[in-house]
Amino acid sequence: MHDTHEDEQYGPLVGFTVGVTAARRAEEFGALLERRGATVLRAPALRIVPLADDGELLAATREIIDSVPDTVVVTTAVGFRGWIEAATGWGLGDRLPAALRGAELLVRGPKAKGAVRAAGLTESWSAASESMAEVLDRLLAEGVTGRRIALQLHGEPLPGFIESLRAAGAEVLPVPVYRWTGPEDIAPLDRLLDTTLARGLDALTFTSAPAAASLLGRAERRGLLPEMLGALRDDVLVACVGPVTAQPLRARGIGTVQPERFRIAPLVQLLCQELPSRAPALPVAGRRVQIRGHAVLVDGEPRPVQPAGMALLHALARRPGWVVARADLLRALPGGGTDEHAVETAMARLRTALGVPGLIQTVVKRGYRLALDPAEDGGDLH
């Protein structure tokens, strides 16, 4: 319900606030959103344990060098490159690739394949779908009884993957190429939680399952989980980079959207389609009005509006053209209030911000209404 002209001029995400929980590539992701007009609230839900400091990875690397596994599964390019770099820092930079040459190398998709080849190695097979389900099917079809399989982890346990291989008779060696822990500074994550609960976000994005689990865990520790789940189920668009990332959210009954290609750029494009479609344009007083999270587009031009004014607009837009009583508008104001004069003050500021007379009509002794065009309103207004 939005035209390309306004998108080209202002960006399709103008007026929307998007939360970014990513730790890795967060700046790039945020910049892509801001370039398209969004206001971005950054709050890393995790931090990555430096590989060189990771004793678990060093122990797994030595075990692979000392006893080469039958199969090594490479899941991510960044993880594999980091593993090789860490091995070099430990003085094992020649011995690890030499050991991997003696194993069957299965890779998940073209990025992982590129990292393997950059290390002077050649994969035995690559998953065309870039999914771990295809890798698992391949292994189980080959038969894994009695085989030692080293699995480079995503950064989180892969649900059901290790269990399925072990149930089929394999010995599985997890390789924790990068591990997540909580953020060093929890304040941004708490601000993100509070903003979500206050319905100050239009969308919340996740690029890893651990980030989703971390945010839900923080909400639970603060005693806010039921309210958080309510906000994410009903009012905030939850966008994930892929199905693995979405699992902790879907397990809690939260609906998510995801792009067909599990990458950051397609995720941004998906938001550019989904968010404007959730804010349909209304024909009001001969103008085209689209009410977004923190701005209003009047004939395609954004008009920034204060939170109190946005609260009034959203209340009026729930039943466009119908009269909304002052008492109902008072309850809609941030923080509520006891004096209907606060509604009149906020309404005066809102009309000034909109800059177009006649969009909101005063109905004497009753309240206010959006001046929906009669030809479009579908019937009598009350």
Observed structural traits:
single chain; Rossmann fold; five-stranded parallel beta sheet; 18% strand; disordered N terminus; disordered C terminus
Brief synopsis:
The protein is an alpha/beta fold and 382 residues long.
Describe this structure in words.
With 382 residues, the protein is an alpha/beta fold. It folds into three domains: 4-48 and 183-277, 3-Layer(aba) Sandwich (Rossmann fold); 51-175, Rossmann fold (3-Layer(aba) Sandwich), CATH 3.40.50.10090; 281-376, Orthogonal Bundle (Arc Repressor Mutant, subunit A). The chain is 43% helix and 18% strand. It is built from 16 helices and 18 strands. The chain has helices at 4-10, 26-35, 55-66, 77-89, 95-101, 109-118, 132-142, 161-167, 187-197, 209-221, 225-234, 243-250, 264-277, 307-317, 326-332, 341-354, and strands at residues 17-20, 39-42, 47-48, 71-74, 104-107, 125-126, 148-152, 171-175, 180-181, 203-206, 237-240, 281-284, 287-291, 295-298, 301-304, 324-325, 360-363, 367-370. Helix 6 (109-118) links the parallel strand 5 (104-107) and strand 6 (125-126). Helix 10 crosses helix 11 (225-234) and helix 14 (307-317) crosses helix 15.
